[in-house]
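Quiz preparation item.
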């Protein structure tokens, strides 16, 4: 175990001791860097990590596009939903947030599980969000 680093600071004639745990700092530095690739699907470009390979288009709706894919690291089949114009209207943003919260909350065989929320590659792409979920064999239609 690596010992803590102690930093001395003075604030209004009082000695304040701040302890920084060196192990936690190293864990933050060792985060895995993801490499992204761009794939064009129905006039939209998906910017997703290279560990995901898109296999087919599943559908398109008012929120965006859903594609089936494979996680090449685990071999697991996933669905990747690209939400476009994320902050277009406040009510749509609230609905999306509610959907994500509910899908993360429920733990049932008949409800898909959110595997990952992908951060945008660039700040200019902050208007889009990628939701990676389990791939279901059928839908409700």
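Solution:
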């Amino acid at each position: 175990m690596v010992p803590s680093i102690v930093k001395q600071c003075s604030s209004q004639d009082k000695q304040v001791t701040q302890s920084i745990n060196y192990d936690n700092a190293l864990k933050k530095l060792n985060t895995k860097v993801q490499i992204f690739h761009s794939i064009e699907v129905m006039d939209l470009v998906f910017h997703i990590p290279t560990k995901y390979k898109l296999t087919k288009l599943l559908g398109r709706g008012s929120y965006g596009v859903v594609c089936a894919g494979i996680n090449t690291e685990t071999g697991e089949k996933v669905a990747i939903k690209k939400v476009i114009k994320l902050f277009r209207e406040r009510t749509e943003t609230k609905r999306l947030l509610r959907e994500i919260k509910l899908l993360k909350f429920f733990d049932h065989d008949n409800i898909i599980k959110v595997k990952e929320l992908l951060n945008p590659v660039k700040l200019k792409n902050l208007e889009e969000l990628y939701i990676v979920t389990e791939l279901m064999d059928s839908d409700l239609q």
